[in-house]
Design goal:
The chain is 23% helix and 30% strand. The protein contains 9 helices and 16 strands. The strands form 3 sheets. Strands 3, 5, 6, 7, 8, 15 and 16 form a 7-stranded mixed sheet that branches. A 6-stranded parallel sheet has the order 11-10-9-12-13-14, sandwiched between helices. Bound molecules: NADP nicotinamide-adenine-dinucleotide phosphate (NAP).
Length: 315
Amino acid sequence: MKPIPQDMHAWLLHGYGGPEAMRFQEMAVPQPGPGDLLLRVEVASVNPVDWKIRQGILQGVLALALPRVLGRDCVGIVARAGTDCRGFEPGDRLLAVADPMRDGTHAEYAVVPCAQSARVPPGLAAADAACLGIAGLSAYIPLVEIAALDKGRRVLIHAGAGGVGSIAIQIAKHLGAEVWTTCGGANMDFCAALGADRVIDYTSERFEQALRDCDVVFDTVGGEVHRRSFGVLRPGGLLVHLSAAPIDPVPPRGDVRVVRADIRASNARLAALLDWAAAGVIRAQPGEVFALAQAQQAYRLSASGHARGKLLLSA
Ligand SMILES: NC(=O)c1ccc[n+]([C@@H]2O[C@H](COP(=O)([O-])OP(=O)(O)OC[C@H]3O[C@@H](n4cnc5c(N)ncnc54)[C@H](OP(=O)(O)O)[C@@H]3O)[C@@H](O)[C@H]2O)c1
């Protein structure tokens, strides 16, 4: 085990804004409280929520005290366990999601709740496991728990080439669904290789003209895509979405169910995703990997809306 240093580097958000609002600086390594683990971060993922927090877009829903370390999840080695963390030992490699109201994971060390951590199975690479935190949960909860997808159901997954979509396609296929997905032309082969039965290039084809009678639409895009998605659902179908703003408060159809997925980490959910990855049921899709010190570049790519697979930071 490496000795724990006193200080570390971390990306701190001092005020809301562009790349200049985040600073890579030294700070004290945090101490885990009861129910917490201190992880030496190996790989952290970059999610759209990171740049949305930095820009101040989420101030209405996440009232954060600044300065605050950015980043929502990571794979890391337990450096120290707080009290009440039975089952976790120093040296364990974990996938963990940080408490959204506390310091995050874009740092050399991070404190995470043990209730939001799960052991990475031997043989699963840290970078692969790191694709399954926020992005994995954001595919798992809508499709497995809310839609309860099963054999023969027709599902449309928007943005199949993204961090969430690339896992969602594979989960839906594993559950036996007929999977349609949308992406740009350059990502069609990528989505087909993940198992999608039909891939729609949203830049050249309107999805509502290509398919109908969907049991489920999983909307990760929102806005106009959200509105148009109602047109492809069968009566009684389900539109499950992550962050579809701006959306109309009253859905245009009364004969379908609309659910906003609440993405919360738990041991069981993370363990289920990791087990599927270890068994080869889902293949993690690491995209570009940046050094921790280059996080601003990763945030820029995420904000472009056209990252493929999961953006990662390697500590
Ligand atoms: N509420 C929550 O807790 C929660 C959790 C996770 C994610 N989210 C939200 O869900 C969204 C997706 O997350 P993510 O991590 O998957 O993002 P991401 O990895 O950044 O997604 C990028 C992908 O979106 C695709 N895309 C962009 N516009 C599209 C369109 N009009 N139609 C189809 N595909 C399109 C791009 O494909 P092309 O390059 O081929 O265009 C790209 O591959 C984000 O807005 C994120 O904030 C919310």
